[in-house]
Design goal:
CATH class of the largest domain: Alpha Beta
CATH superfamily of the largest domain: Fumarylacetoacetase-like, C-terminal domain
Number of helices: 8
Number of domains: 2
Number of strands: 21
């Protein structure tokens, strides 16, 4: 099942149409309180062409966004980081979550080194702590694409030789408004399977910047979930990002500029396409 959140409510993707569902839930996280399967059984109240829908982030406001780092070898190499022996991650709030076509906003205080990061992410379906690797998929509602936008100058000021020395500084570099485009749909695991080998790409103005496969991850999705849950309880609607491949602007110096358009594609999950704009300045 492909489950979308739109301005007209939750919808199932059915070919080139969206079946708008007769559900009271505001977003996927709200639906998870009763189980994702309710969306499969829900009555269809109307249908619209998918290209006519205004798509929103499937989870309106994740309670926690887990950001795994250093999980593709080529990215570890280009970033000059040590190869991890276990998953590494930080957590941020969901305040930066935004829709699959919303603008990425360059913050006024740090506009010059804003980077893209294509990431496969999972949405947590039920609470868990100390989740065994073999049971991790039982806690997954589905998969989404995320662009883990980062202000590198802010982030790197909080690191020394690839090692985090100021966790709050790293969080700040990844938490500006509109820094986490998500979507376009939550795709349930029965659609993708659990042996993930999905193409993952980023384009900036139609130029390929990242081109890899999720099978190149150092740690699998279940290993990331298990490791995170050992210290961070996971709750329904939390979003767990699993790392980005090589090709980021940190390595090339080709950072985002106002007027750019960033496209993140993950095979079987869909496409994020976000214009880049300067953030509006606060009135004096």
């Amino acid at each position: 099942m492909r489950l979308y959140r739109t301005t007209a409510g939750l919808a199932r993707g059915e070919g080139d149409e969206l079946a708008l569902l007769d559900l009271p839930h505001l977003d996927v996280a709200d639906l998870l309180s009763e189980g994702i399967e309710r969306a499969r059984r829900a009555r269809v109240r109307s249908r619209i062409p998918i290209h006519d829908a205004v798509l929103l982030s499937p989870v309106a406001l994740p309670g926690t966004v887990v950001i795994a780092g250093a999980n593709y070898r080529d990215h570890v190499t280009e970033a000059g980081m040590p190869t991890p022996t276990a998953p590494v991650f930080i957590t941020v709030t969901g305040m930066s979550a935004t829709g699959p076509h919303d603008p990425i906003l360059l913050p006024a205080e740090a506009p010059s080194q804003v980077d893209y990061e294509a990431e496969l992410a999972v949405v947590i379906s039920r609470p868990g702590r100390d989740i065994p690797v073999g049971r991790a998929w039982d806690h997954v509602a589905g998969l989404i694409a995320v662009n883990d936008v980062s202000a590198r100058d802010v982030q790197l000021a909080a690191m020394t030789e690839g090692v985090v020395t100021d966790i709050d500084g790293v969080r700040r570099g990844k938490s500006f408004p509109h820094f986490k485009p998500m979507g376009p749909a939550l795709v349930t695991v029965d659609e993708t399977g659990t042996d993930l080998d999905l193409a993952i790409r980023t384009y900036v103005n139609d130029e390929v910047r990242q081109d890899s496969r999720t099978s190149e991850m150092i740690f699998s999705v279940p290993e990331v979930i298990s490791h995170v849950s050992a210290t961070t309880p996971l709750l329904p609607g939390d979003v767990v990002l699993t790392g980005t491949p090589g090709g980021v602007a940190l390595a090339t110096g080709h950072y985002l500029r106002s007027g750019d358009v960033v496209t993140v594609e993950i095979e079987g999950l869909g496409r994020l396409r976000n214009p880049v704009r300067m953030a509006p300045t606060a009135p004096r």
